[in-house]
Structure formats: C-alpha cells, structure tokens
Design goal:
This protein is mostly helical. Helices cover 61% and strands 0% of the residues. It has a domain at 15-117.
Length: 195
C-alpha cells in the first residue's frame, strides 16, 4: 500500500463521498472490528485466525484503500467539518484508538517490531483525530444551538481527551485544554461528565 504524503494532490474521482465515508466506517465497525471474538462466514479462512492486533493493523494501516485513516483523509480533503458524519467518524476513530490501547497495551503478537503495539503511533493517530474533531464541535456549535444530547456526547469525548492528556503526563497541556474548552464551549465544560 502507499502512505499519503502531505503534499499529495487528490483527484475528485479518488475521493469517497460523505455517504461512502460513512458506509465504509460502518462496514469496518460492524464487520471487521470484532472479528477476533465474532468471526463472520464468507471471509477467507486466514481471516478466521485474526487477532485483535491483526484487526487493529488492518483498520488503521490500509493506506489509500479502506482504513480509518483513509476515511478521515477523504473527509478532510472535502472540508466536511460542518457535517455530523464528519463528527461521528472522528468520534468512532477516537473510540477505536482508545479501545485498541486498552486491548493491546504491553502485549507482543509474535516476532519483530512490527508485531508490537506502538504507543507513540497510537498517540499520533489520536492527535490527528482529536484536533479536527474538536474543531468540528466548535464549528457546528456556531452553526446551531447545541441540544442536551449533543452536549452530553461532546462532554464524554472531551473527558476521553482530558484523560488521554493526563496519561501522557503533560499537565500544562491538560490545563490549557480545559481553559480553552471553558472559553469555547461553556455548556459542554459545565456538563458533569467534564467537571
């Protein structure tokens, strides 16, 4: 597979539509994510032996084809930050990375460095997910008045972000993030899930 570079030019015919991005993510979440504990019929026999590490690698590293990163890139290229699909996909990607940290932390999956969970790569992926996600919250809240369900959902995500920052040991960044959240989204900041 080919990894995307920052200066790559994307052809319109190579970019999935918003609906195709949503459908791709739903396929990954419903058919691939739990394959290690819930194998599905109709897949190659080698797939039936997949560990969660194999699934994580597949979902994260499929480059230009189908992985979570590729779907996020398609959303970014189209600047769909106002879209609820954009927000949902980034929330799913963040939760996927958190689940993967929980399931893979400190475990080896065979010989070689490529069979070991890489905390730093996971943090990089989280950062690439969190920044556009929090921007979409701000933009969408400017577009409309946030209802109670939206505030609760956003508060849960912000709590995850604060916990990740705390785990990384960067207290200054945590305080900066909390201050920024209080100023930009006071309703979310005041929610019990964040306080």
């Amino acid at each position: 597979y080919q990894r995307s570079s920052a200066d790559k030019v994307y052809s319109a015919s190579d970019i999935r539509t918003e609906q195709a991005c949503y459908d791709s993510m739903m396929y990954l979440l419903e058919n691939v994510l739990d394959f290690d504990i819930n194998p599905k019929a109709g897949y190659h026999p080698n797939c039936q032996l997949a560990t969660y590490f194999d699934i994580y690698s597949f979902l994260r590293d499929r480059g230009e084809l189908i992985g979570t990163r590729a779907v996020r890139v398609d959303m970014h290229v189209q600047n769909l930050v106002h879209s609820h699909v954009f927000t949902d996909i980034h929330e799913w990607c963040l939760r996927f990375e958190i689940l993967s940290i929980f399931r893979l932390w400190g475990r080896n999956f065979g010989e070689g460095a490529d069979r070991k969970f890489n905390w730093q790569l996971s943090l990089n992926s989280i950062a690439q997910t969190v920044d556009p996600l929090t921007l979409s919250y701000v933009v969408q809240n400017d577009d409309r008045e946030a209802d109670a369900k939206t505030v609760t959902k956003e508060a849960a995500i912000h709590r995850y972000i604060i916990l990740i920052l705390l785990c990384n040991g960067d207290t200054t960044r945590v305080l900066f993030y909390i201050d920024k959240l209080a100023k930009q989204q006071p309703k979310v900041f005041g929610h019990p899930n964040v306080r």
